[in-house]
Amino acid sequence: LPLSSWATLSNYFHEYIQGGTYLFQVSVNNYNPTSEDDYNNPLFSSALSRDRTLVLTWDIETYSSLGLGNFPTAQSDESNVFMICMSVHWKDDPNPLKQICLVDVETAPDPRWITVVCGNQTNLLKAFALCWKNLAPDIQIGFNDSQYDWRFIVEKAKKLGILEWMFNQMSLKPSCLEKISKWQYQYNKIKVNDRDFHSKHLKIPGCVAIDVRPCFMKFYPKAEKSSLAYYLKECELDNKLDMPFQRMFKYYGRALKETNATTAEQMREVAEYCIIDAISCQRLIVKHNAINEYREVASVAFISLYDSHYFAVGMKVRNLLSAGAWQEGILTSTIPCEQTEAGKYPGAYVFPPVKGLENRRPVTGLDFASLYPSLIMTYNLSPDKIILSRERAESLKESGKKLHEIKFKFNGRDVLAWSIEHENQAEMKGLYPKVLERLLIRRNLLKKRLAPLKDKKEELEKEISLAEARGEGVTDAFKSEYSSVSFIVACLDAKQLALKVYMNTFYGEAGNSGSPFFLRELAGGVTSAGQKNIKLIADFVKNKGFGIKYGDTDSLYLVCPEECFQKCDEAYDSGNGISKEEYWSQMVKISMGAIERLCDEVNDFLKEDNSSHYLKMAYEEVLFPVVFTGKKKYYGIPHESKPNFNKKLFIRGVEVVKQGQSKHFREVGKKVMEESMRLDNTRALHQIVEDVLKETINDISQIDLNGVVKTAVWKPDKNNKSV
């Protein structure tokens, strides 16, 4: 059933109940997904993508009469919530339809929002419930509200004896206090990168609560901070107002003691601060197209929008596989495998990097396209096609079946299994390859639609930049066109990225011992096949005269044979001929042409080797100059369609970009990288590092001590507690 995408109802019954509420009754057979043709129909597409889903954002302000040193808690009688601010928006609009400030003391009005003075905390909480009832939001968002705001509101309402009343105002489905506390006051453990985010909120039927903080922690996994102000800055959005809580406590403390024009105006300032924090959540969500992205992730696997936010991608893949199995007439269990033996599978094969600066010849990346999904499709690696006994394998061979052998080491012993190859026959393909192939076809179609729209967006951005450089304004019609194209690009990109995430998770789910789809032989079969193929291609390119600078998992970094550069070497003549920039540009162009020809040869070789079209390599970019410092650690100037020595550096894994480093360390590292990439550089990397360090020591008196502070994140759930 399509729980998060559009559906078409037919032969349904509906009736008006009360208060703007309708009851729909429909047979499950008459509840069908909207067709792709309808999605692409210009008459419907805009209404379906920019639908009027109502989003409510909120923020609360709390106070403790015990003073500044005491953080307000719901359990304390000396703590109270004195302000709740809300804004409501259509899903894709950062501009609010309505803004509301609920406050318990006299506050000066502001024409930008509705101010409701409630008189006390109990009335404030009741007013919040009544606002919710009348707005009936589809989605509610806040920043870190599942770790503070919701907990404070719910526990304070429970303490005041009004939680049941509030819930029954907010929900169409009434309940009692015991059931609300047990089933509706929802705890979730959200997986954020390698940590758990502990979330708790009041689950109102018909509304999905989304905490923006864990959402953006996933968007920025390497960020050292996770504050609202930090994310606004990263997204290049207007910053929130700055109001230290000491000043807020002072303002509210005065307003409690006396009411006059000054205290009312000061409370209006607090309201503005609170309102902006609430609206900022929607601005972030719209900027990252987060709700549409959640919807796309949910629609692929037939899950709800709630599941998309609160559950890791592994659960979603399980649901997708179960749906695929159901279509094939196969029943699957959702019961996790029993405790299995711990251990490591064979890892990816790594060709050690040739360390140091390479500014003599360009280095070109040759990558497998979606390696692990491609291997699964190529070798028919699926639980229903894996053979674990030698006797069964021999029997199948005798019957004419072609088998792919899986062999790898696990905890010091050999693991042996086989998969039945599909030989490019649809009826022979297993569950995993069938589901992956459907996802791949959908993704390729989306990327095909996306490419011209991305080009159009870039053209419009260039025109805007040129107009601004000339000091000219941009017409409203032009802005509208750019906004429309950008929105379509964001939505299509969200769809294809959702498919990519699912495809890349199949391997992880096969190797997850807590999953009902766990199969060690399948997971090990994927990595061992990856090792075999990258070694195969390495031998192939070496026989063609290409040198390997580095290789890891799914990519090789290659240098073209020397004879490719003979003519441009002669034209440069050690600096006596063409300019160095022209010489470097020619070498980059030669490398691009050579690698494209090599790519075609490699793909023909792969097709001949495995008799399928799934496993392919693609040329990504040329890096020149480039520096390799270790495994998964390198940087260089990327050249994609043509030589461009003014592009931003491509940096992968180098310590300078990792979290926890001091500002000064980053600056020194950045200087070393910039110097090594210069066109006129003649120094070795070691010499550049020495020179930059000497220069730094000479200016040591100018260094700000705050710039040498190193930060660390305490992760109590992990073993590395020491910081």
TrEMBL record:
InterPro entries: DNA-dir_DNA_pol_B (IPR006172), DNA-dir_DNA_pol_B_CS (IPR017964), DNA-dir_DNA_pol_B_exonuc (IPR006133), DNA-dir_DNA_pol_B_multi_dom (IPR006134), DNA/RNA_pol_sf (IPR043502), DNA_pol_palm_dom_sf (IPR023211), DNA_pol_type-B (IPR050240), RNaseH-like_sf (IPR012337). It is an enzyme of class 2 (transferase). The keyword rRNA processing does not apply. It holds the Pfam family DNA_pol_B. GO terms for biological process: DNA-templated DNA replication. GO terms for molecular function: DNA binding; DNA-directed DNA polymerase activity; nucleotide binding. Residues 321-458, 490-563, 594-700 form the DNA-directed DNA polymerase family B multifunctional domain. This is DNA polymerase. It comes from Funneliformis geosporum.
